[in-house]
Amino acid sequence: MSTGDLSNRRDFSRKAVLAGTIPAMALAGHSTSDRDTSSDVDISQAIQQLARTAKDRSIADTDILPAAKTAFIIIDMINLFCDPKWMSGGNQQTEAWLVNEFASIIPNLQRVLQAFRQTNALIVHVMNAKWTPDSREVVRYQQGRDYGLFDSKRMSVIDALKPRPGEIQIRKVTSSAFTATGLDFMLRNADIENVVFGGQYGNACVFYSMIQSREFGFRNYWVDDAILYGNESSRMIFEPLVGTYWAKLASTPDIVRVLKSNKTATS
Pairing between strand 194-200 and 219-228? Predict the structure, then answer.
């Protein structure tokens, strides 16, 4: 399949993204054909400018996230998607990269999760799978993927982040955590104003969810060290875009610092 074919396809699989078969410029929506060196330089400079702007607009030391108004949404941290061997599709280099990424991202997700639990803030676990064996109810571009049934071991949240009673679990058959799940309804009922995102991918399901969250009127926070991307090129492109236009970038220590219990936030 040619690069041009890839840039026009909508059914990118997780394995294809991780294997690096989708070029960075295709992910960004640019044609990869007939580019010269000067255009590469221009794009690189544009990304660097976006990164500077995103940093300027990132979470501030004086920001406060009241626990009663804030939700943490953890997307697709399930056993199958956290299996480096399965995800890499046999590519040893990709598998090694994934092992390192998960070793960094999962402890950060645990730290944020612990902070939300300690302040009694709202926690949402999101799982991507299917209800029927033939995937008839699943969004078209995911049909045919090697996903299991909801609540099976391989499609359940990993033990390190296992949901506790009192935490919301969303089962989705598409990319966004909001599409056809009722999540926006529940967040509004809970009087949520701020949504903190973590999980995978930063260039797919987390990104789509964040965009819809913004459309529903929530303020979004992107935990940059607790989000897995398909590859480093995707991180270089998406993170500055997100931080410039759609969400505040924040690190795990940032979120832990600014998340305040109701009593602290109002005192």
Answer: parallel
- CA distances (Å), origin 123, targets 16, 126, 197, 223: 30, 10, 11, 15
CA triple 44-98-121, angle to 5 deg = 90
What's at 146, amino acid-wise?
D
CB burial of 30-44 (b: ≥16 within 10 Å; e: otherwise) equals eeeeeeeeeeeeebe
3-266 folds as Rossmann fold (3.40.50)
Q: What is the rounded CA–CA span in Å between residue 226 and residue 102?
A: 9
Query: At residue 239, what is the residue type?
Result: E
Spatial distance between the Cα atoms of 155 and 129, rounded to a whole number of angstroms:
6
Residues 6 or more apart from 56 whose CB is under 8 A from it? none
- Residue 249's DSSP bridge partners are 222
- 205-215 and 232-245 helices cross at what angle (nearest 10)? 10
List the chain domain ranges: 3-266
CB 175 within 8 A of CB 139: yes
User: Which candidate, 199, 218, 116, 127, places its Cα nearest to that of 170?
Assistant: 127
pLDDT single digits (tens) 32-63 = 455 566 666 688 888 888 889 889 899 998 99
pLDDT digits (tens, 9 = 90+) for 107-154: 999 999 999 999 999 999 999 999 999 999 999 999 999 999 999 999
